[in-house]
Amino acid sequence: MLFLRKINADMITFPQSKINIGLRIIARRSDDYHEIQTIFYPIGLCDALEFVVPETDSDYDNLTMSGFTEGINYNENIVMKTLSVLRQTFNIPHLDIHLHKAIPPGSGLGGGSSDAAAFLKLLNNYFKLKLNENELKEISLRMGSDCPFFIKGLPVYAEGKGEIMTTLSPVPGKYHLLIVWPQIHISTSEAYHNCKPAKREKELPYFYSRPVEEWKNLIFNDFEETAFEKHPEIRDIKKALYDIGALFSSMSGSGSAVYGIFRTKPENIPAEIDRLKIFSGQL
What we know:
The protein is of the alpha+beta class. It has nine helices and twelve strands.
């Protein structure tokens, strides 16, 4: 970590990422958002976020970052937005903040939203703001439609803009998850602009309840078609994961990360896939 000063557990958090198991674009809304159906599933890939209160009074916040930081605007970072929103109601001193990004931005793994939700919970606990879970979710929604998911981080079926959530049981059994990021940043707004909304007869939880081995022919991500056309290397990664034994593989969110779910940890990973691997661990 960056800070040499002593910090305690109340001043550090590890925002977790998520994968989307299926993502359907149902309709365009009149408010320029889209109706979606998806399953948010928490995984073990995490950022690290810490803060300290400066020993001497300061009139500004200081944010430093490490890890996957390319393309991130420090002044518009969602962590700073979260702090600004809380200060509209609470008196919070200026802080020194360090964020280590292990979750690449623009990967479809929810890193920014998770950072916001985790920082909100961290500040609530440290400064004893006494915000309950519903209040935390309400505030986090101002940072992004999927932010409320990260307040609890349990598997959910998400509808609406992604903010209407129904808790699901975790996938039964033990599986290995491999995530590959092709180092491509996909704009979420551009991805939604190019999508083709369509209604479905059966909802995702019906297919999610089936064995993972059956998902390949049942669960799909509507963003894949346009992402694969523009970036064929993403399609190639998905194919490569199936070639080495994935039971199910999909692009997460609007991309560009692709994950594979395996019965056991794969041992025959091609060098190019191994080079782009950002997570390998239990689902």
